Amino acid sequence: MDARTDQKTHAETAPVLLSVEDLHVQFETTRGIVRAVEGISYTVRRGETVAIVGESGCGKSVSSLAIMRLLPRKTARITRGRIMLDGRNLLDLSDEQMREVRGRDVSMIFQEPMTSLNPVLPIGLQIMEPLFIHLKMTPEQAKARAMELLELVGITDSARRLDQYPHQFSGGMRQRVMIAIGLACNPKLIIADEPTTALDVTIQAQILELMKNLSRELGIALVIITHNLGIVARYADRVNVMYAGNIIEQGSADDIFLSPAHPYAIGLMRSVPRLDEPRGTRLETIEGLPPDLLNPPSGCRFSPRCPHRIEICSQPIELRPAGEGHLSRCHRVDEVVAGKLTKPQVVVARLAQQELDHTNPIMAVENLKKFFNVTLARKNWISQEKAVVRAVNDVSFSIAKGETLGLVGESGCGKTTVGRVVLRLDDATEGKIKFEGLDITHSSSGAMREKRRRIQVIFQDPYSSLNPRMTCGEIIAEPLAVYKIVAEKKAREERVAELLQQVGLFPYMAERYPHELSGGQRQRVGIARALALEPTFIVCDEPVSALDVSIQGQIINLLEDLQQRLGLSFLFIAHDLAVVRHISNRVAVMYLGRIMELADRDELYANPAHPYTQALLDAAPIPDPKVERGRAPRALKGEIPSPLKPPSGCVFHTRCPFAIEVCKEEVPETRQFGPRHLVACHRAEEVVAHAATARN
Amino acid sequence: MLRYTINRILLMIPTLIGVAVLVFFMLRIVPGDIVEVKLRGDGGNITQEVVEQERKRLGLDRPLLIQFKDYMIGLAKLDLGISMWTERPVIEEIAIRLELSLEVAILATIIAILLAVPLGTAAALMRDTWVDYAVRIITIGGLSIPSFWFGMLIMLTLLSLFNWLPPIVFTPIYVDPVANLTQLIWPAMAVGYRYCAVTARMIRSSLLEIMSEDYIRTARAKGVYEKLVVSRHALRNAMLPAITVIGLEFAFLIGGLVVTEQVFNLNGIGQLFVQSVSRNDFMLIQGMVMMIAVFYVFVNLIVDLLYAVFDPRIRYG
Question: Is residue B4 one of the residues assigned to a domain?
Answer without folding.
Answer: no
